[in-house]
Amino acid sequence: MSTPTATGRIAREATERSPHVDFDLDRRRLLLEGESYPEDAAAFFGPLVASLRRLVAELDGEAMTMELHLVYFNSSTAKALMNMFLLLEEAARQGNEVVIKWHYHSDDEAMEEFGQEFAEDFEHVAFQLCRID
Amino acid sequence: MLAQHYLRYRDDLAAQGIIFAFTGYVSERILYSLGEALKQKMALDDTDNNVIKRVFSVFVEQVQNIIRYSADRVGGSPGEPGTELSSGMVLVGMEGERFFVVCGNVINRDDVPRLQSHLEHLAGMDHEALKAYYKQQLRAPSEEDSKGANLGLIEIARRASEPVEFDFTEVGDEQSFFCLKAYI
C-alpha cells in the first residue's frame, strides 16, 4: 500500500467573518464553527476542499467525521459546504463510514432549515441534525 | 441653509421608513461594519433573533452583489482582493411591522436582460419552488463569470416574505441603474 499523502492538520482561528477551522487529517475529523461570510469564499474554502478531496480518495473503510457548528453563512459558503458534502457522500457511497454532524440552536430557524435541507439530499452519508437547547 | 438642507434630506428618508442608508463606495470592510451596526440596532430594538438573521442575510447578499457586480468601481490591484471599491447604495427600513432592504448600483446595459429574466423567474416562484431551485443551483457547477450571484439572489428571494421587487433605468449610453427591494 502507498503511504498516505493526506496528513497533517489545518487549524485556523475564527475571524469576524470566517469560521474556526480544525481539520485533523490524521484523525479524519473536520470541524467548522462560527460565522462564515468571508471576503473570498473560494480562497478560504479552496484549500479545505482540496485537502478533503485527497483525504477521501485515500479512505479505505476508515471512519470520517465532519462537525459543523455554524450560526450564519452566506450563499458562497453554502456552495463550498455543498462541495464538501458531495465529496463525503461519494466516500460514503463507496463504503466508508462517513458522518456529518450539523449542530444548531433550537431557536435558530435558518440553521435548522438549512440542516434539514442538506440532510434530505444525501443518501449514503449519515447526516445527523444535532439540536442544542 | 446648510442644516435645513440636510435635515430635509434626513426627514425625506425617515418619511420612507428608512432607518439606515449608505451610498457611495463599499468594500468588504464596510460591509462588515455596516452589518454589525445593523445587527446591533435591531437587537437594541428587541427585534426577534430570527428576523435579525433574515435581514442580515439579505443585507450581506445584496451588498456582496454590489461589491462584485457594480459597474462603477475604482482602484483594485490584480491579485489583491479587497483593494477595489464598488459604488452603490443600500437602505434598510421598516414599513409597518416589516423590514425591507433596498440596494442599487450601476450595471452594464448588456447584463440587464439576463438579470431581468433571472429575477422574473424567481418572482414567479413560491417558497417550495425557491427551495427546490436553490438546491439545484447549489449542486450546479459554478459558472465562470457568475461568482455565485445566482445563488445569492435565490437566497434573498427565500428570506423575503413576498416576491422581490426590482427595476432598471438607463444611465448614459451603456449603463443602467439596477434596484432591488426585498421585504423580510
Characteristic terms for this protein:
heterodimer, A: 133 residues, alpha/beta, 6 strands, globular, B: 184 residues, alpha+beta, six-stranded antiparallel beta sheet
Structure description:
The complex is a heterodimer of chains A (133) and B (184). Chain A has 133 residues and is of the alpha/beta class. Chain A is built from 3 helices and 6 strands; from the N terminus they run βββαβαβαβ. The model of chain A has no long low-confidence stretch (mean pLDDT 93). Chain B is of the alpha+beta class. Chain B has 6 helices and 6 strands; from the N terminus they run αβααβββαααββ. Chain B has helices at residues 2-15, 28-44, 49-69, 112-123, 127-139, 149-159, and strands at 18-26, 73-77, 80-95, 98-108, 165-171, 175-183. In chain B, strands 1, 2, 3, 4, 5 and 6 form a 6-stranded antiparallel beta sheet that branches. In chain B, helix 2 runs antiparallel to helix 3 (49-69), helix 3 runs antiparallel to helix 6 and helix 5 runs antiparallel to helix 6. The radius of gyration of chain B is 17 Å and the shape is globular. Classes of the chains: A alpha/beta (133), B alpha+beta (184). Chain A binds chain B through residues 16-17, 37, 39-41, 43, 72, 74-76, 78-79, 82, 86, 107-110, 117, 121, and chain B through 28, 32, 49-50, 53-54, 56-57, 60-61, 64, 81-82, 131, 135, 138-139, 142, 148, 151-152, 154-155.
**Hey, roughly how much beta strand do the residues of chain A contain?**
25-35%
Query: Percent of residues of chain A in helical segments?
Result: 25-40%
Radius of gyration of chain A: 14 Å
Query: What gyration radius of chain B follows from the Cα positions, in whole Å?
Result: 17 Å
How much is the average pLDDT of chain A? 93
Judged by helices, strands and strand pairing, the structural class of chain A is: alpha/beta
How confident overall, as mean pLDDT of chain B?
Answer: 90
Order of helices and strands of chain B: HEHHEEEHHHEE
Q: Secondary-structure element sequence of chain A?
A: EEEHEHEHE
How do the strands of the widest beta sheet of chain A line up side by side? 1-2-3-4-5-6
Q: Structural class of the helices, strands and pairings of chain B?
A: alpha+beta
The total of helices of chain B stands at: 6
Quaternary structure state of the chains depicted = heterodimer
Tally of DSSP β-strands of chain A: 6
